[in-house]
Design a protein that fits this description.
- There is one protein chain.
- By secondary structure, the chain is mainly beta.
- It has eight helices and 43 strands.
- The strands form eleven sheets. It has a nine-stranded mixed sheet with strand order 19-18-21-16-15-14-1-17-20. A five-stranded antiparallel sheet has the order 23-26-31-28-29, with no helix packed on it.
- Strand 15 and strand 16 form a beta hairpin.
- Helix 5 crosses helix 6 and helix 6 runs parallel beside helix 7.
- It is globular.
Length: 714
């Protein structure tokens, strides 16, 4: 946006507060029951690391422990998610790989080209891993072999067996032996079935036959593995504890109990991959039942560490899912007991927890429910007062996106959000209840209980009780409030809170407002920045005031570089304010989530989910974004594009049906769909007038051709 035009992006992206529960759900954490270190099985992703785009090493080591990656023929680094391509980049990260051989066949399902072809590939891949052997956790010769070996495999006369399953068991035996002939020590994982729901007799019979053959032929895998792609986190414990372990014992499997690998976990329901509140429920079950390794099933883009990174103009940046995984990775000490109180179908919240004797601290990660959740902690060894911090990592949603699947959302984030940091008193048995008010289903939460210490206010937080106040009421000793205080009584025409907000640069900022509205109706505050009106903050009812509950809403403001006077005054109804958290806005309107006319929604090279729009080649081709601004002003559009042809291409820019400008796209020499993917991404800027409220910004075919990644408003 032009500096002269002071504007605001409204809270179109605000998350509505959760429904009010009659009584909070309760997660019980018993610090007196400890079970050794966390396994952290969930800290793995399928194809999460790539050479192109170059997945950042620090973000990899900050959130991952293992990766499942494609095997390569010896010396072939052409495929960006292959082990050969990424091995040198993973050195020093501490992350290890499960090397998947089956992908060497090519095609989907895998295309069988005969035993000679397959055995040559196995030999070459096994020689290849010797160069980076210390990075290899295990090799997985097959992926989904219960149904994905196609192209005549079942009819191949050179593969003995009267049925598909018999042929696979023979192939397993021969493949295992070829690997061992080259590498006598590398761990081999299998069978890696896609479907192992052992309560179905046919699937349990298939696993029984596999293990029986492996025992008889001396080819028992070192690590047992299968996929868990059902909707319930309970699939794994059900299969493992009730069916697989008894079968392993019955058959006398050597090395039992074998380490368990869930190589693709997650349901693929559109609200799982990288989403904090959904992931943690799987982690909790993995920990309870002793799963050793897991890789998040991929339905989005390779190289993005399981949908926890986002493309931006400044490279790959973390979203809320990455911060949740980072929290999990950093947990230290002994795992402690956490009840899974909801036995109804895994619809409610769950948690993992540790107690660290060195720091005398308890850490709890929770999430997965909509509504109030009390975390009841018992049997802490301390007595008296403790420091209690509650933080959240927020999964953002764009209400104007055409594709509303949850995992397609998730703006990049600059960090986590602290809800409060205060002193609490333990009861005589070392217990305390930490309330998570209005938990959002897809957000993640962290509780840290540690020895007493002074609270720390994050640099992005502006406490209401420290603002310049006019005709309001300050409340102290508030157990739910950040800084142990909040401000109410903003009830009169002259009531105001003025915050001195610092901004490093002029631009758009996201403001999270922690508040309470105990009325039955939606309330508002009017907002001015440096004396200029920037709309209002809308506060849906929280069903109570700040002494009993709080919610959070989002507002976007334009701030100038330096100090800004952000002033909240009485609007409609009534609301209490705890704090503002102010950070640079990270939102982009993704082209593939916009309304696309006679064009092609495609993807970067090697990716799974679509993430760009090409084929904007016809007279009626267009991509239309829905954006919202609070007032009529001139805004600058930032358009991410590629133009792989010589010369400059253009798009006509229409706002609400009226042509307002032209976007120019100088040649980038390559396409986003090419081998270098988003390395060729460039920016085009155009200034256009936007009306107050919702606007339709349409990029329509002009001269030449261009692919579109996103649109952002400055």
């Amino acid at each position: 946006m032009k500096v002269a035009a002071v504007a605001l992006l409204l809270s179109a992206f605000a998350v509505a507060p959760a429904p009010i529960n009659a009584a909070p759900s309760v997660i019980t954490v018993d610090a007196g029951q400890r079970f050794g270190p966390l396994k952290k099985a969930g800290l793995g992703t399928l194809f999460g690391f790539a050479a192109t785009p170059a997945t950042p090493r620090d973000l990899t080591s900050g959130s991952q422990l293992w990766l499942s990656q494609h095997a390569s023929a010896d010396g072939d680094a052409s495929y960006p998610t292959s082990t050969e391509a990424v091995a040198s980049k993973l050195n020093g990260t501490g992350v290890r790989m499960i090397v998947r051989y089956n992908d060497l066949m090519g095609g989907w399902p895998y295309q069988w080209k005969g035993t000679a072809d397959w055995f040559a590939k196995v030999d070459s891949a096994t020689r290849s891993i010797q160069k980076y052997r210390d990075l290899v956790l295990a090799v997985a010769p097959f992926n989904e072999p219960d149904n994905k070996l196609q192209g005549g495999f079942a009819q191949d006369p050179n593969v003995p067996g009267a049925s598909y399953d018999e042929k696979f068991r023979w192939l397993w035996t021969q493949t295992f032996r070829r690997i061992r002939a080259i590498d006598a020590q590398v761990k081999i994982m299998g069978p890696n079935f896609e479907h192992y729901r052992p309560w179905e007799p046919d699937l349990q019979a298939r696993m029984r036959a596999f293990l029986s053959n492996a025992v008889a032929t001396g080819t028992t895998p070192n690590m047992i593995g299968w996929h868990s792609l059902g909707a319930s986190p309970g699939d794994v414990p059900e299969g493992l504890s009730r069916y697989y372990r008894p079968l392993e014992n019955e058959l006398g499997v050597p090395g039992r109990p074998l380490p368990v690998v869930i190589e693709e976990y997650g349901p693929g329901t559109g609200d799982f991959e990288g989403v904090p509140g959904t992931m943690v429920k799987h982690w909790a079950e993995f920990e309870r039942y002793g799963v050793d390794y897991g890789a998040m099933g991929i339905y989005t883009n390779p190289g993005l560490l399981g949908n926890t990174l986002r493309r931006t103009g400044n490279g790959l940046q973390p979203n809320a899912g990455w911060f949740m995984m980072n929290w999990y990775r950093s947990m230290a000490g002994q795992r402690v007991f956490v009840s899974r109180w909801d036995t109804r179908r895994y619809q409610a919240s769950d948690a993992v927890a540790t107690y660290d004797d060195g720091s005398q601290s308890l850490t709890v990660l929770a999430g997965g429910e909509q509504g109030d959740v009390d975390v009841r902690i018992t049997n802490l060894p301390q007595r008296g007062n403790v420091r209690v911090r509650l933080e959240t990592t927020r999964w953002s949603r764009d209400p104007y996106a055409v594709d509303q699947r949850v995992e397609r959302q998730g703006d990049p984030r600059t960090g986590t959000y602290q809800l409060f940091d205060q002193t609490m008193t333990l009861d005589s048995s070392g217990g305390v209840t930490v309330p998570i008010k209005r938990m959002e289903q897809y957000d993640g939460y962290r509780i840290v209980i540690s020895p007493p210490a002074n609270p720390v206010t994050p640099s992005t937080v502006y406490e209401a009780e420290r603002a310049t106040a006019t005709h309001v009421v300050q409340h102290q000793a508030a157990k739910l409030a950040s800084g142990n205080a909040y401000v109410g009584g903003i009830d009169f025409a002259d009531s105001a809170l003025t915050f001195a907000v610092q901004a490093p640069t002029t631009g758009l900022y996201e403001v999270q407002v922690r508040y309470a509205n105990g009325t039955a109706a939606t309330s508002t505050h009017q907002v001015t920045v440096n004396g200029t009106g920037q709309g209002e903050i809308t506060y849906p009812s929280t069903g109570g005031w700040a002494d009993t509950t709080m919610g959070t809403v989002t507002k976007r403001l334009v701030l100038k570089a330096g100090t800004n006077q952000v002033r909240l005054t009485k609007g409609n109804g009534y609301a209490e304010v705890d704090f503002l958290d102010v950070r640079p806005d990270q939102h982009r309107y993704e082209a593939e989530l916009a309304a696309v006319t006679n064009a092609r929604i495609g993807h970067y090279g090697y990716n799974e989910f679509p993430d760009l729009v090409g084929g904007i080649d016809n007279p009626d081709s267009a991509v239309e974004f829905t954006v919202e601004v609070p007032m009529a002003a001139t805004y600058r559009l930032d358009i991410g594009y590629a133009n792989g042809l010589p010369g400059t291409a253009t798009h006509r820019v229409l706002v609400n049906g009226v042509e307002r400008g032209v976007a120019s796209y100088p040649s980038t020499n390559e396409w986003l769909t090419g081998p270098r993917q988003d390395a060729v991404l460039r920016h085009s800027f155009v200034d256009v007038p936007l009306a107050a409220g919702v606007n339709r910004v349409r990029l329509a075919k002009g001269d030449g051709y261009a692919e579109l990644d996103y649109l952002a408003i400055q």
